Amino acid sequence: MELIQTQRGAPCLINDGLRYRRDKKRESHATWRCCLKGCPSRCTTDHSATVFLKKPSDHTHEKLSTPQIDIEKARTSVKRKAVEDMHEHVDKMVCEEISPSPLSYKHVRALKSAVYRERCKLRPTIPKSIEYLFSAAEYPAFGLESFDVIIRDEPNKILIITSEDNLLHLSACENILGDGTFKSCPKFFEQLYTLHGYKDGIYSPCVFALLSDKKKPTYIRMLQLLQSACNERNFTVSLATVHTDLEVTMISAVHYIWPEAVVALCNFHLCQAWYRKIQAFNLTRDYRDVKSLVGRWLRLVFALPTLSADSVREYFLTTLTDLMPDTTKANLFADYIYGTYLHQDCSCPPIMWADIFIRNVKTTNACEAIHRHFQSSLQTYHPNIF
């Protein structure tokens, strides 16, 4: 005999492959009747439904199959865990429930839906406008108890969520990584931008900023609010390097707020941008051909980040220029590399992307992995903020 819950949250008794719903409840006992409509079977148990006071009468139908009972038990278990720990990862709860049982992974979606439905009952009403978010006074009631620093800038539609411990950790990190995500960003905002601190080989997401766009003034305002929050708590931001992708607006904002900080570009995004230009100039076949002179030259270009920032420009203008095949496509690609990454007035000078081997952090892939892991826990794109 086992007591579980139905999909609607009502108590359900399972005994010998048969289900019973509670019919009447008294101080000393409870009466149960078969869940199948039309079946006259009834039974009586004590108050805690552990002992039969009156055994079940005969049923007019077959017993439930074992998989049906297992899925009912699993649903009850994950719904209980969903309420006990609101911050537990959904996938983890479901996998822990499926692993020891004969259930298959086709039941995963049903169990996930049960978790989301149960948690939605405890969450506040979904906001219908961004004004409601900024006017709400009690953010802890929205499940943000662990974040004691909420920074709101309604005119610029910026909402920053963090904590004093996170700010203290971020201020002590010499390497800060920034990355934005769009699919998992809540409604009414354009992107969720996260600042991660890197210390002792560990990446830690510290600041979550909901932004209305990707423009330079928005990034500047976000960093200003963050700097002010640290100053109010006497936290000195001692960063030496800010790691980001090739987003020019964010790079400019970092230079504006922290002029002495070094901006380091993600090597993955850098090479990705170069390869996209190879595709745009129809050089893909040459790049993949190991016997092609153009392909060999292109692969030498991809080795530029391994050189020092002081020598990379000279190496490109002398050695690589001499080795470059005299083709129109190769010349177009060379002009792109020099104009964007090597020219004296370029937007991404070598100091941002060269000397790759001496960096502690070479890419921002760890940040993107955290975003992908977070996104995998969501059922839909652009979920509500709660």
How would you describe this structure to a colleague?
The structure is a single chain. This protein has 3 domains: 2-120, N-terminal domain of TfIIb, CATH 2.20.25; 130-265, Nucleotidyltransferase, domain 5 (2-Layer Sandwich), CATH 3.30.420; 268-358. Helix content is 40%, strand content 19%. The chain contains 14 helices and 13 strands. The chain has helices at residues 66-84, 90-98, 108-120, 130-135, 164-172, 216-232, 248-257, 267-280, 284-288, 293-301, 312-323, 328-342, 350-353, 365-376, and strands spanning 2-5, 11-15, 18-25, 29-34, 42-46, 52-54, 149-153, 158-162, 175-181, 191-199, 202-211, 241-244, 262-265. The strands form 2 sheets. Strands 7-8-11-10-9-12-13 form a 7-stranded mixed β-sheet, sandwiched between helices. Strands 1-2-3-4-5-6 form a 6-stranded antiparallel β-sheet, with helices on one face. Helix 1 (66-84) packs antiparallel against helix 2 (90-98), helix 2 (90-98) crosses helix 3 and helix 6 packs parallel to helix 7 (248-257). The radius of gyration is 30 Å and the shape is elongated. Residues 179-272 form the MULE transposase domain.
